Structures are given as C-alpha cells and as structure tokens.
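Backbone-to-sequence.
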C-alpha cells in the first residue's frame, strides 16, 4: 500500500516496476503513466508496461502489471485549483470565459455536474 498527497487531480501517476534477485541485482521491467482522473476506485486493472521513456512496449512477453487503486480527493478544492491554474496559464483563453469562471461560480451547478460525471 502506498499513499501520497495530490496537488493537481489533472496530473499523472507514474509507476515504475523493478525486479530484484537474490544477489540484489535490480532490473528495470517497465513503466506506466496513469492519469489520476482515469482511475476507478477499487477496480483491479491490468496496465501494459512501457519502456523507460514511455514510448514503446517494455521488453518481454506481454509485460503487464495488475493494480488496484483508490484516489481520494476533494472535488471543490480541485475545481478551484483548476480554475486558478487556467487564470495563470500562458495559453490565451477568452476573457469572457475566464471572468465567468472566476466571478460567477455556481456551486450547486458544479455539484450537479460532478454527480453527473460519476453516475
């Protein structure tokens, strides 16, 4: 079991898999990058392992890892962080949209949208 604080729910979890033999020789088996928003709590899922740069498949015959994960997060604080990020982002967004996001955030509508997403 492993736990970590998440500052951005839009980030990616990188899992690197190694094998250690009796002589303590460590061998890289593969790596996988999983977007946190794609994790289904309590669901066991097989992930294909990639090479060190996450470009191609790892060596071996069908290299995979079975993971069961749970992500606990506060939707309100994550949405507010995302809105804050969008306001400071270098990518140009329409000013009207940014003003709407920052000044008239309707919490009731936001919770309905979150509920719809997870139903």
């Amino acid at each position: 079991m492993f736990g970590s604080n998440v500052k951005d729910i839009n980030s990616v979890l990188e899992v690197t898999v190694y094998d250690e033999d009796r002589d303590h020789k460590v061998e890289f088996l593969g790596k996988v990058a999983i977007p946190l928003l794609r994790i289904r709590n309590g669901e066991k899922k097989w992930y294909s392992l990639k090479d060190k740069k996450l470009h191609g498949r790892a060596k071996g015959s069908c290299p995979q890892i079975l993971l069961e994960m749970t992500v606990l997060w506060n939707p309100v604080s994550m949405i507010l962080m995302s809105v804050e990020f969008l306001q400071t982002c270098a990518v140009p967004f329409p000013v009207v949209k940014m003003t709407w996001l920052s000044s008239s955030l309707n919490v009731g509508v936001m919770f309905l949208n979150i509920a719809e997403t997870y139903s």
